[in-house]
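User: Fold this, then the next.

Assistant: Folding the first:
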Amino acid sequence: MAKQLERVSFAQFQTQTDAPDLLAIQLDSFQEFLQADVDPKNREKKGLEGVFSSTFPIESTDGNIVIEYVHYEVGELKYTQEEAFDKNLTYSAPLKVIFRLIDRKTGEIKEKDIYIGDFPIMTNRGTFIINGAERVVVNQIYKSPGVLFSAKNKEYSSKIVPEKGSWLEFLIDTKKDLMYVRIDSRRKVLVTMLLRALGMTVEDIILRFFDMQEVVLDDSSEAVSRLVGQYLGETVYDAENNVIASAMDKLFPNTVNQFFQKGVHSVKIITSESLQKNKTLVNTLEKDDAKDNMQKAVKKIYSILHPGEAAPFDVIVRDLNNMFFNNRYYDLGEVGRYKLVMKLYNDLEKQDRDALLTSYTLSFEDISRALRHLIAVANEEEPVDDVDHLGNRRVRSVSELIVAPITSAFSTVEKSIYEKLSTREIEDLSPQNIISIKPIMSAINDFFGMSQLSQFMDQTNPISELTHKRRLSALGPGGLSRDRAGFEVRDVHYTHYGRVCPIETPEGPNIGLIVSLAIFARVNHYGFLETPYLVVKDGKVTQEIVYLSANEEENMYIVPVNVEMDRDFNILEEFPRVRYKGEFELVPKSKVQLMDVSALQLLSVSAALIPFIEHDDANRALMGSNMQRQAMPLLKATSPIVGTGMEYYVARDSRAVILAQEEGQITAVDSTSITLKTKKGSTSYKLSKFRRTNQDTSFNQKPVINVGDKVSPGDILADGFGTEQGELALGKNAVVAFMPWNGYNYEDAVLLSEKLIKDDDFTSIYTTVFECPALETKLGAEEITRELPNVGEDALRNLDEDGIVRIGAYVKPGDILVGKVTPKGEPTETPEFRLLHAIFGEKAKDVRDTSQRVPHGEDGVVVDVKVFTIKNGDELSPGVLKLIKVYLAKKRKIKPGDKIAGRHGNKGVVSRVMREEDMPFLPDGRPVDVLLNPLGVPSRMNLGQLFETLLGYAGLKLGVKYQCAAFQGASLEQIETQIDLANDKLLKELREERSRYGEAEEQIKEYWDIVKLKKDGKYHLRDGRTGEFFEKPVFVGVMYVLKLHHMVDDKLHARSVGPYSLVTQQPLRGKANFGGQRLGEMEVWALEAYGVANLLQEMMTVKSDDTDGRVRVYEGIIKGKNVTAPNIPESFNVLVQELRGLALDIQVYDKNGKRVPLNEKEKEMLDMRVHLV
């Protein structure tokens, strides 16, 4: 039975090593969206259920008709995954929604289920199959809704960003010492104007922002002097209710005297501390000319929001209140409200804060607290927020990303329902003819087919597949654009620890904008990234695990996983080094609150596959993790001798391998299925055979167990592509030597031994598919046939009687795969034509040959042919009568020009394949497999490859595999120990072998000194060609080498003649278009420097856009004649036409003064003139 491969580990400390399900972010999110397995009554108001619940019920304007949503049902899957792949269909299930129409007048209730359409369903691999292609919905990381405080150029701002509705931005201008507000990025106004427009009086503003004290009035001079210069906290009235002084008025001596005269006993004044703290607000109130006039404030705000429009006052007030206080127009969303409460209400108890989480509109208290916090930020009492902190960025997974277009479609549906309810008669009304479902399915199809975040899956190998599903993108709708994204948003942030990988990101313009989820990270209920920690109590590490978001972790003292502990998990260091708010500090162990769960915690899956990554420069580690995704799965998969322990989890969670789900015994095994007998009965596991992937690699599964084996849940039943014994296996363990060799490994070039080609070590299977549809045209149906016009029997040799290529045929460029004819405009059928047609069949008919041929640059063996027809009940695209798919496979051996790489960013191109006997060989006679340039190591600072090479050689000799996870790799002492163990084993084997031939111990020892493994890894190699020793010892060992999908067969291209551009008449560009080689300006300079005038003229005329000249040259080559002088190039004609377009009549004359025609029309015109003369 196939158990997980045992590896020798060098970990110095115990860690939580079991990785969670790496596809959980995709699978859980879609499960939350659809809730297909949940009883409709118990579904949470999330995902699809949330969209329906928030849109319905809908009432008619008179309130007589109500349309209610009852529930939805997801039917059985329409096709299997194999059918969807083969027939270019979508893997989907029918979605039905039950609606109820209630007529309140008559009490009549109509309930009807409406078929919405076929909804794409996620596979168990976390992907969608759309039109036969596997796609992934990438997670988006974006700025979270809520409140955010920032500072720029002495201006402090507080932005309240909702999920739906108007943005509200409060500003403090420290130069003018005034407070402003801006709605939806429009013109700013004084903040007090908005507060007054929303219905707050000056007294309300004072109550919310200022502290007051009551002063009892007596006629002493002390009381007068104490009041003068103060600001009133409330309006003061006399006995007849007349205003003596208004709130916020500054008190002068005559005003105070009036108080005495009018018999005022006490007044409330604003305290001086409060005045000083809120000085900006005082200045704003003083400057605001509309503070005493609500009508003026309302009209001013409305004129900014709707310039040039007029409306009644009551309508303006209603609209203004709806803008922030009505959940129909404004929605902070669950996340926005949570962020706002956590930021502004942290003085309340937890239960009081929780009570505030249910309201998703703004309140006066929210606005007041936001302004008070902004004042505190401006006074440097509170810090500004960090936009790049992961507490302010959240993840939108597949559920939310699908909900967004559906919600938008429902707003269209809602409008159409209101329209129909107001125009139709009640008798005609039923849910079916009121609810238009077209916009909903259109939105779903557009999202999966065209959204920037719905991507064609990278399926080169299991790790590329898994990484694509765990990717986080800051781009896409509602995200950033790569042109405007600055350095800060791309940079590594301290909150990324354990949540986002600091290493894995693209090298191009998307650097830092597309990142990868860390291994143990997960997305919480609010969409924030969390990472696990072990709880530490009184200096002892407990086994309790807590998941914390970046905000929750902010004030915690966290020790790394390598802190010194005893067997009972007590921390031994009195002052351990901790992480605190992104800094490293030494604190007493009693203050420690948490400990990391694993040394791999900060890395993504790809980065965690690199052994000794701690010895690599970050740039090279980045390249190493990216290049593993480009590794071609090899024919003979071999897992690395020096691994990290993550190989098993990658193979498991990429779903490339098949694992037993239950305990049982294997009763049948063949290449296509495995049968397992369990207590419940028999379970059959179907294996995928040579299925083509999105990147034309071959997905093939093969059993690794035998009949009679007993298995437990999680045991490996079958290996997939790029796996061996249930572990990821992308490359080969090759014996490498770091030495220059006759310039063949100059500048990262690599020399290979022919042995690797003989043994098929770097051979991969490349699979391509060609589709040939027979369509219904206006002139008749296309036909798949062997009877092709003007095609000889030799070209038809591989076709069967239906005109389809036979399986097993080797085909080259230009060979026919599927014979097809398309009708031309048929002439009237004369008796002679009918007779010829009866005798010669298709060949005499007026059809043209539109057969599917092998394109330029492709060849291979036909491995499968699939035929789908409407007659057989196959569902095909509209207008397609028959679809033939031909699969070609080709074994690609490694050759010069192919790109290979290690796991440490050490990449190179194969420059030469050497005969095995000519390669340098070790003292024991073994030739090395790969020669690398030693200069590729020091400047790149990726020393991890040297540690791997040294340990790998010991592993090869011992026959064991190692686990060197990040920060837990073998030390040099441990590597030396493994070399000693290998030497002991080798010496024992040598003694046993040599003693049989009667060799003396001295002779054995003498030979042993030559062949034993060296601790520094350096050996005296001999030149395979001469047998001479090389001058210096060479570093030799075993490195895991990958073959990347940049293969020379896909890049090499040659052309004599081919297609030309219609306008410029120059050869097309690129291999796909069978294009030519481009000579740019600088290439012309280079040729000019060599003085090759005739070659240059040839290249720029007859080989480019001299249409007549190239025909004559071709003719001359065939007839063996000399080539005549070139004509006017087409680019000159294009220039002339451009100038004529600018109304300049350009005419061309030869040296004899005779006008030269530039096209056929001009030639006819000139000929006519000559004829008339």
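Now the next one, as you asked:
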Amino acid sequence: MDPIELVRQRAAELHEALTNSGANPSDPYSFVLKEADRRNIEVRPYPGGHAMLGGGRALYDGDARSIRHERTGDPFLDAFLVAHEIGHDEFGGHVDLGPLQDVNLARSADPAEAGADRVVDYSSKARQEVQMDLFAREFLFPRKLAKELHLRQGLSARDISASLKAPYDLVAVQIFDAILLPEMPARSPAQHRPKQMNPEQAEAAGQGESAFLLEAGPGTGKTQTLIGRLAVLRERGVAPESILVLTFSNKAAAELTDRALSFWPELAGSAWIGTFHSFGLDIVRRFHDRLNLPKNPALLDATAALALLEEAFPKLDLDRFKDLWDPTDNLSRILSAISRAKDEVVSRFQYRTLAESMVASANTDHERELAKQCLEIADVYDLYEDLKAEHGAIDFGDLIARPTELVESDSEVCGLLRNTYKHVLVDEYQDVNRASVRLLKALHPDGKGLWAVGDAKQSIYRFRGASSANMNRFCGEDFANGQSKSLRQNYRSFQEICDGFVGFARSGMAAARADVTADASRGASGIRPAFVQTTTREHEIDEIAARIQKFRDEGITFADQAVLCKGNARLSAIAKGLEKLGVPVLYLGPLFDRPEVKQALSLLSLLVDPRAASLIAAAAMPEFSVPLNDIRNFAGLLRGKEAMAPLDWLDEIGRAEDISEEGRNGLAALAEAIRSCTPEDTPWRAFAAIYLDNSRLAARFSEVAHSGSPLPAIALWQLQNFLRTAEYDQRGLPISDLLRHIRRLAILSDERDLRDLPQSAQTLDAVRLMTIHGSKGLEFKAVHLPSLTSGSLPRSAKQNRSLPPPDGMLEGPVHNGVAAMAQGHDEEQECLFFVALSRARDRLVLYTFCQNKSGGSIKPSPFVAGIQSLLRNEAPVTTTISSEVPPEAIKAEYDTPLQITPSEIAIYDKCPRRFLYTYAIRVSGQRTQTAFMQMHDAIQNLVDRLCSNTETEPSASAILAEFEACWLASGPVEHGYADEYKRLALQLVENLINLRAGETRRSVETLTVAVGNGEILVTPTECVTAPGAAPILRRIRTGRQTSDSARKLDALSFELAAGGDAQGEFAFLSDGTTLKLAPNAKRLTTIRGKLETAMNGIEAGQFPAEPDRPERECPRCPHFFHCTDLPKGGLQKKSSSAFPVSDQPVD
């Protein structure tokens, strides 16, 4: 059982027993004194800073049976300090307690590991203090009481806080825990006594002090053997403080610590057990002066690093990575390339040397292009390192690279660490990168005292530098006297499943040894893994659901089954399909994509957005039901107001016309829910007030959970947990800053840890859905592996968007950077399949589908072919496709034929839901107004001014003068790098001048193109004329040309409008290119068909949220936060409020 939950359950039992004895919990200090008295513990308060407190806030002396605590002036806080120390008395401890330095009354029981928190590693003493904080909170205000007061008695968190005289944050956090998370059953504490090892394990654990690598395949007991190694060190009299245990996750480190402490208590506070990154951080902090860093340097996560670099981007004179529209994607890829360099301990100077060497040796255009690309990465690398130095900051890559450089170059530091940690144990050695290996070699060049365990076939973290090659190099190349042995006994799977993954390893898997084997201790079951081919993706989901139910009927619970996929996109589709078919699933997916989370963020947005765009999401909530057409009419009212401040929209509710009675009531209820909140509130406080004080929203989700749908409540708990702990750049209103931070997290996919479910969710009987990466180290009775097609696994190395390293950067036999990266990618694909095959204990089913959406054929994965003889082919047990549900149409009424512009229909093609929000309902979306956007606004203003005058042709100097006025009006003139942004803007102006040089223009006319039952109004930016030539209908865009620019519906609309009488042309100022549209009769027919399809969809009210690339496009969309369930009702669009005819580009 989770140690924290064990502590909390015991605290609740003590609370109940004390209450039953007559103690009054509403007087917390008296209440806790009665518990101390029952234990014969004397409690004495002292003024803060008193010598008797030993420099802390509270102190427990077990021998003297006394608790000394600071007299804070707050009875509840005094009670909390005493309760914390009573927890130590209840649970004892493996370490000398010492004075309590501080407490956290609202500490999370399951902290969200996001951003820099990923490397925070608590020592055993720190973990004990965390547990005692939670003990104290549970003892004074148990979750059972919180549930009773809020759910059954209907008291708000504010009311309960006042009644108990308890801090509001403590009360609210405890209510969220009580009503949103599944209740964990009472269990006994887990006993982690070392199991009896088999002869192979015992031999490995008992090795001498020479470098030793244990190759432990799936299910062979690697963790048990590592614990056994610690037991051997104890028997040999090794001092605990000389032991260093390194892992790759905080979870693994905590598990190892708990298991080790059960038989060797002295390890606590002495041995160092944690992740490589946390060990590196410890070295950085201890020797910060030698690294020219502050004592506690700021630790940049991916979002913070990108923000730092983005600010200074205009200083860079890039060519290959030049993107003057949105540099985020390029900079993110460059930062990943820099991180890979640090995985190899390649400094910026070494990186530049390698890049320059590529330039010198390049013989082909392709080689020259790659070399120049690496040189530009070197430029960014230089700037990035300078910026970090200016801010006294480090990033994740520095946590291993910089300690490695320090230990390799500073003999004094190296000697100190080497003499301290004489015994080093490494878990999951196949996941180490070269930086980690070099750190180990620097500490112990001969490998003496090094003991490692891993499996080369499970090396699936190539993106952070892990390589199975490090396993191969252990004995000899890295450690000359290294020894290696293997574990062959598998305790997890039946022999047929072992045969499957061993057969794949023997079929040519690069990371596998020729003699790989696995002997199942459980023997054979007589059932081989199954392979099922369905027709379509949707049919595959039906088949998975049917087989899950079949296994359940055979006695395998939902919780003992897992669906493993390579990516989250397919997992999300499977999760939705299974839920529709009645199969409970345990899968949150991307947190900020979930409807209940978007609704919550929309409610927060309403506090800071003057135009209240997120009303459309709130209106779909049953508590605030407002029909869709009412939202449209109210949005129109707000749009007509010139200057509005946050929450001014509340004043307009009473003035609104064309609002139904239902809509008016819904808006009034919404106003009541946010009545106590202000734009200056922190996000978590506002969330708590809305969900716990001003409404019964949290209670409603609790009821939904108890009725059989727990995931929405869990997702809301995860959100509030994130809101409490998130760290982000604060420049304005806290909620606005938070929403900007969430967008960046989503764009970078840096919120993956928020997809992990809290510990209490693991008690639910639901099918586990996870990525193959996430399944590593886990096992299930039945495993389902869907979508094993030729295009999914293995994925082609050509699909890898990572930037290739310079030649020679990656150690190994392959010198060429592109080839080395491709080789690593291919090996990782094999390892992923191996990991997936080896998770099952009893039953394993592999699935594929053979048709794409258009009916074309799809081949199964070649990996399946490699083990076909070890599988049994089974026909699908389902024939109907019931998981696919067509999107629901909105009843749309139009009084006049539809009239829309090319930009509008292009947006519909890109994402119909975005068209609905932007043009049909016209809610004002929210986008972070970056300096780049301001720069483009200034250029667009310049284009508009120039093209509005067709009578005279301004000179270049006149255009530059006009630009100065536009820049002052719209440009980022207050930005710290304003001059650099202006330099970039002048490049676009130069492209505009060159584009228009020597041309004559005539006035622009709007062309009407009949399409279906509607019309497309095509208005060029300018019309260029020349004697004897067809006029050019030009559209000027400030962005850049993309590979699909000619296929977008706005370009196709221009082609259709131009027909054969004019030349259509798109000009792109960011890259100075033009796209000439060359229609012919056949192509015009095809274009008309595409436009009619889009027009018919608009008329029919088909507005699904289906962008082409949701993971990339959605976080950048102005409607990201309120794009969720729509309010009920239809849409009535009167002729007096036709679609806007402005054709300004939206992107």
